[in-house]
Specification:
Number of domains: 2
Strand order of the largest sheet: 1-8-7-4-5-6-2-3
Number of strands: 8
Number of helices: 6
Distance between the termini: 67 Å
Largest sheet: 8 strands, mixed
CATH superfamily of the largest domain: Glutaredoxin
Mean pLDDT: 86
CATH class of the largest domain: Alpha Beta
Helix content: 40-55%
Structural class: alpha+beta
Low-confidence stretches: 25-39
Length: 205
């Protein structure tokens, strides 16, 4: 058997290199398919109790009305001089950026219900161009809101309105809290949008 020429050796080496590259690429594609096939689920952090509060439009709204929707909640009050205007501006941005998500709702709950009547909330909502069918503003009895914040959302009470949470809260279609996000952190807000879209596409457990 005659020895292989330099050209033949080169061809064999090239063929072996290509085969190795194709094998490695196939392995990466298989691994990617396995990873993408996994169901990534956000943790369930709390189950909200049923509640009924008064919406700025004059009708009552509760957990049962939000069933089947993914929603983002926050706690604000209209006389707030500090974080609330920033929070509402960011909620307005979420309303715009997630406008094509038909099953998404935004819910702002007043921690100062004695002052924040539905008429006051309606004027406040208008400042942020809140869509009445997608972004709700709720008021009601202070004790009920306190219980909902403390025992439902697990964000502390609202006895002192100046100490209310400034986090956004992500709630799934079954009324379960699935995440908390800083309203002052851009990375957290990006994650909130991504997680909201994830829940919108999540199948029932």
């Amino acid at each position: 058997m005659s020895p292989l020429s330099r050209r033949q050796v080169g061809r064999l080496f090239l063929a072996a290199s290509i085969s190795l590259m194709l094998f490695a690429l196939g392995g990466l594609l298989w691994l990617n398919q396995r990873l993408s096939g996994r169901t990534t689920r956000l943790p369930v952090l709390a189950q909200l109790p049923d509640f009924r509060l008064l919406e700025r439009g004059g009708h009552e709204l509760g957990l049962s009305d939000l069933k089947g929707k993914v929603w983002i909640a926050d706690f604000i009050f209209t006389r707030c001089p500090g974080p609330c205007p920033r929070m509402s501006s960011r909620m307005a941005s979420l309303q715009h950026e997630l406008r094509n998500e038909e099953s998404l709702r935004l819910v702002s709950i007043s921690v100062d219900p004695e002052f924040d009547t539905r008429e006051v909330l309606a004027r406040y909502a208008a400042q942020y161009q809140a869509d009445e069918g997608r972004w709700y503003f709720l008021t009601g009895e202070k004790a009920a809101i306190h219980r909902l914040a403390k025992s439902g959302f697990l964000v502390g009470g609202v006895d002192d309105v100046t100490l209310h949470t400034t986090r956004f809260i992500l709630v799934d279609r079954l009324g379960r809290v699935r995440g908390y996000y800083s309203s002052n952190d851009e990375e957290d807000l990006r994650k909130l949008k991504d997680d909201a879209r994830l829940l919108l596409r999540e199948t029932a457990p």
